[in-house]
Amino acid sequence: MSAREAILQKARRALADVPDVEPVLDVAVVRPAPERDRSREEVVDLFAERVADYRAVVERATSSTVVQQVAAALRGREPSAGAGPLRILVPPGFPPEWVPDDVEVVHDGPDVAVSELDRCDGVLSTAAVGIADTGTIVLDHGEGQGRRAATLVPDLHVCMVRADQVVPAVPEAVAALDPVRPHTWISGPSATSDIELDRVEGVHGPRTLHVLIVGS
């Protein structure tokens, strides 16, 4: 007799005097209470609040101020090479008018090695969706968002989310996303904690997340 058969035989003997009873699951179905309709401004306000809860930097911007605010988000960071302008990764399709003039632009593409991404001081990107309830930004890596490695390797991620891309909750976000595209869901900068609950940032993604909510 094999070990498997011996175990099964013991299990059958142990259950020999147990009557066959149809299991009854007494599970209460809990449905979320209906939530009052939020205005567009309230949804965007909640999104900003929840993103900030993750220790990300959140600012409001307009199409006329966004380039100055991107420059301010980059200001004060030390160039990786110790001299010269900051090296900023820019994915294909990112609005060129939102890129500051005083940076060295690294145009991302499939031929740019990960080691080159690691030499960049930051990355600029747009987003696909912002989720108010969770403070989550979703990238589907379309125009202006870059490949997944582009927003995971550099230490700073400056992400532009249009106010009209912010939805109230996860179901609306899922409905708005293309299911055949790859998705990256970002809730704050990269952070983890060890057994002593010491928070460490930048281990598996950007140490700093700077979000600009771009309105009209």
From TrEMBL:
UniProt domain LUD: residue ranges: 116-214
Pfam families: LUD_dom
Protein name: L-lactate dehydrogenase complex protein LldG
Taxonomic source organism: Pseudonocardia ammonioxydans
Lineage: Bacteria, Bacillati, Actinomycetota, Actinomycetes, Pseudonocardiales
